[in-house]
Amino acid sequence: MLDLTSLLQIKAKDLKMNSEQNFPEIEGFSQIEDSDLIENAPQEVAIVDGESALTRFNSGLAESRTSQFDHNEKFFKEQQLPISILDDYKSAAGETQYEISANTRRVYRSSFTIFKNYCDQHNLSPLPADPRSVISFIGHQKELYQEKNGHQLSKQTINTRLAAIRFFHIQAALHSPTEHPLVIRVMRGLMRNQYRHVSDYDQQPITYDELEMLLAVIDQQPKELTRLRDKAILQLGLQGGFRRSELAEVRIEHISFLREKLKVRVPYSKSNQQGQREWKDLPKQELFSAYDAVQQWLDATKIKQGHLFRSLSRDGNSVREYQITQEKIGKGFLKGDDIYQMIKKYCDKAGLNSRFYGAHSLRSGCVTQLHENDKDHLYIMARTGHTDPRSLRHYLKPKD
């Protein structure tokens, strides 16, 4: 497993490789100097925990140079930092754990591990990385075929892996090799390459027709709580256009049953990571409204606070013990992946090819169905939380 802490502590001078020996002279690629890298790349250092914060603080206390502006680092440095600010420093440093979501952090760790393994295999430095190493990595990744479907890796997957390389370089206060002009040119060409064998489909939308089939399957469930919960998940997910992570994070405190609508507060979302006010107004009279389904689930379980969608006991007759130990960590509630697997299962049972459906099918189905219902773009965006109308073009199809 990748040891991130030790990796970030590796010094550039220790990782300087014999690039001239490892790479032959190639026109346009042979000479890459520091001056070739983008000068304005972000140079922030993220502190991931209290221990690393203390280490960096102590290194600041041990700094013996005279107070000056270092022309290389571009930041002013005190000669010494007083111990009186240590607690304040550690408190602020702890906020870096929220700079990206836990899921994004997990994906970046996995992606960077793949890059590191490639570098280790070829005796290359992963951090800092030579832009030519990144270009070679792109060449390797774009030729890979996935066993499960026989397709090459998508452009989005390769882009994510480059984003991970950039993220960990910025974390270590290093220039990101992904911003080198030659890397950018390679990726620009890859994005326009129409001859790679990649998947050419997205998750299909779940609209009223598909939802009706899924609800019919759920009604065959012998356990009442399973029926009530799963119907509420599908109907709320479709009507509200929720992402699966948002759906899993809905709490009872976020819900208001009004006379003509169900009002759901979304504290945070992919497009609202600053915690601004965001509400979804879901009309009670809309076809397949979630209003009654959510109400029936709450009436049956008697839960009054916490996560709306809970885990059930093995026999399906009771709600499991619920406990939150820290933010988003605990037991007794469903997670986004649980909802994803649930939808796949019901699609298979309903005769819908689960290969083409997933949790995102509810969100895309919301956009598609509202468009079919002759709602305008502003109405749809207010429902889904999209901030750019161009994002809707991916979902909107010409009407028959």
Describe, in short, the structure shown.
Helix content is 42%, strand content 6%. By secondary structure, the protein is mostly helical.
Q: What's the helix and strand layout?
A:
Layout: H1 4-8, H2 19-22, H3 50-61, E1 68-69, E2 76-77, H4 86-93, H5 102-121, H6 131-142, H7 155-171, H8 181-192, H9 208-218, H10 224-240, H11 244-249, E3 255-257, E4 261-265, E5 279-283, H12 291-301, E6 323-326, E7 329-331, H13 336-349, H14 360-372, H15 377-384
Antiparallel strand pairs: 1-2, 3-4, 4-5, 6-7
Helix pairs in contact: 3-4, 5-7, 6-8, 10-12, 10-14, 14-15
Molecular structure report:
The protein is mostly helical. The chain has 2 domains: 4-10 and 35-192, Orthogonal Bundle (DNA polymerase, domain 1); 208-394, Orthogonal Bundle (hpI Integrase, Chain A). It contains 15 helices and 7 strands. It has helices at 4-8, 19-22, 50-61, 86-93, 102-121, 131-142, 155-171, 181-192, 208-218, 224-240, 244-249, 291-301, 336-349, 360-372, 377-384, and strands at 68-69, 76-77, 255-257, 261-265, 279-283, 323-326, 329-331. A 3-stranded antiparallel β-sheet has the order 3-4-5. Helix 3 packs across helix 4 and helix 5 (102-121) packs across helix 7.
